DNA sequence: AATATCCGCAACCGCTCCGAC
DNA sequence: CGTCGGAGCGGTTGCGGATAT
């Protein structure tokens, strides 16, 4: 038995809103504020579904909304965060003042997705399409026929979008072909010229895991933080080889979803330095000991996950272990108001 | 100039989440 | 602890303007 509809769909107006209806919503909110949207149509004198009223307000009428075009900085931030957390539009929008989840979602679907595809970047995985193809081909445990079918499908999609070169040719801004890049992606970055610079292992990993990487990797662990916004190369690479060459079960997406990564983004979409993070944490009321502990914890997070997974811990085991350790270490940060 | 096609965006739909009871 | 209902989220649809033929 399903839930009854929130309103009588046959008796409410649908479709585009008139200025008069907008004025009624605005007047109602000005007098009563938002909340209990199911009562709004009746109280405001509207023949609309309450849900529709809420949508109209949140997506269009809210006074704090920006109605101008997205800036390049906002574009970069959306791409970065989408690469990290996927299509969680409300989360992305919450970090872009004046933008709604609907705005961000529409902008992604109409502009950014196509832009990435033209750049040869798979908008779902944010990897070079050549790498996606390579990954598909190397999936173990899948019968060859299935893989072949998947490859055929992907090839068709890519050809339709002019993303798959008909022959090996140098990619823009590099002397190496896409195929060569794929083959070397374990150790070299794959680059093409782009007005964007997306968060990658190169500019995230050294920042977040400077302590961990210094002890686990002899590769370059520059702590230079690259500011987004300037024209730079779009660098994609497989982090596994650099960070955990000894462990093949590590999944970079797990890290991207971790709060360690989220902490490295501030609302403007710029990567924060350790000093900035410290200052922010301090200004938020954390004491020095707490800040140091957080930084140490953040830096050690990747190494911890790699170790645990190499030791045969399941993903869930790792989360539970981590939860216990964090609760023991920072009881003051894990009060009811802490989002975790 | 008329028609077809494309594109962007507002709005809708169905579902999940979460607090109140 | 289960149910109810409001709020919110993400995917999808469809309208209207812009552009191509």
- In total, the number of strands is 2
Overall spatial form: elongated
The SS-based structural class is: mainly alpha
Mean pLDDT: 56
Can you write the helix and strand succession as a string?
HHHHHHHHHEHHEHHHHHH
Q: Runs with pLDDT <50, length 5+?
A: 140-320, 329-340
Q: How much helix is in the residues?
A: 40-55%
Rounded Rg:
24 Å
N-end to C-end Cα span: 34 Å
**Biggest sheet descriptor:** 2 strands, antiparallel
Please work out how many helical segments DSSP would assign.
17
Beta percentage is under 5%
Strand order, largest beta sheet? 1-2
InterPro entries: Homeodomain-like_sf, Myb_dom, Myb_TF_plants, SANT/Myb
Main location: nucleus
Pfam family, one: Myb_DNA-binding
Biased composition (Low complexity): 213-223
Task: Provide an overview of this structure.
The chain has 340 residues and is an all-alpha fold. Among the domains are: 12-61, Orthogonal Bundle (Arc Repressor Mutant, subunit A), CATH 1.10.10; 72-118, Orthogonal Bundle (Arc Repressor Mutant, subunit A), CATH 1.10.10; 198-229 and 241-333, no CATH class. It has helices spanning 19-32, 40-44, 50-61, 72-85, 89-94, 101-118, 129-138, 144-160, 178-184, 201-208, 210-216, 239-243, 252-257, 259-263, 274-283, 288-310, 315-329, and strands at residues 190-194, 232-236. The radius of gyration is 24 Å and the shape is elongated. Residues 140-320 and 329-340 have low confidence and may be disordered. It binds a DNA duplex (21 and 21 nucleotides) through residues 3, 6, 14-17, 35-38, 49-52, 54-56, 58-60, 87-90, 101-103, 105-107, 109-111.
């Amino acid at each position: 038995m399903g839930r009854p509809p929130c309103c009588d769909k046959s008796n409410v107006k649908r479709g585009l809103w008139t200025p008069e209806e907008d004025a009624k919503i605005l007047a109602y909110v000005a007098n009563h504020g938002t909340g209990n949207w199911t009562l709004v149509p009746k109280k405001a004198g509207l023949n609309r579904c309450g849900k529709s009223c809420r949508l109209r307000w949140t997506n269009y009428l809210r006074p704090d909304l920006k109605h101008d075009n997205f800036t390049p900085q906002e574009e970069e931030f959306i791409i970065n965060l989408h690469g990290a957390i996927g299509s969680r539009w409300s989360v992305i929008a919450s970090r872009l003042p004046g933008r709604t989840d609907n705005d961000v979602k529409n902008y992604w679907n109409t502009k950014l997705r196509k832009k990435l595809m033209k750049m040869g970047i798979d908008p779902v995985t944010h990897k070079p399409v050549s790498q996606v193809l390579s990954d598909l081909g190397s999936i173990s445990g899948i019968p060859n026929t299935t893989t072949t079918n998947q490859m055929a499908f992907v090839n068709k999609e890519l050809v339709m979008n002019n993303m798959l070169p008909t022959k090996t040719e140098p990619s823009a801004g590099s002397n190496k072909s896409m195929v060569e890049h794929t083959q070397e992606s374990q150790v070299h970055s794959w680059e093409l010229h782009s007005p964007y610079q997306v968060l990658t292992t190169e500019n995230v990993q050294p920042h977040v895991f400077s302590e961990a990487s210094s002890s686990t990797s002899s590769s370059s662990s520059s702590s230079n933080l690259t500011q987004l916004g300037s024209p730079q190369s779009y660098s994609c690479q497989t982090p596994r080889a650099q960070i955990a060459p000894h462990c093949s079960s590590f999944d970079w997406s797990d890290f991207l979803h971790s709060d360690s990564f989220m902490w490295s983004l501030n609302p403007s979409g710029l990567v924060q330095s350790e000093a900035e993070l410290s200052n922010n944490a301090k200004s938020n009321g954390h004491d020095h000991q707490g800040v140091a502990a957080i930084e140490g914890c953040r830096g050690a997070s990747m190494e911890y996950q790699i170790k645990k997974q190499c030791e045969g811990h399941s993903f869930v085991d790792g989360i539970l272990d981590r939860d216990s350790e964090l609760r023991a270490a920072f009881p003051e940060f894990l009060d009811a108001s802490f989002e975790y």
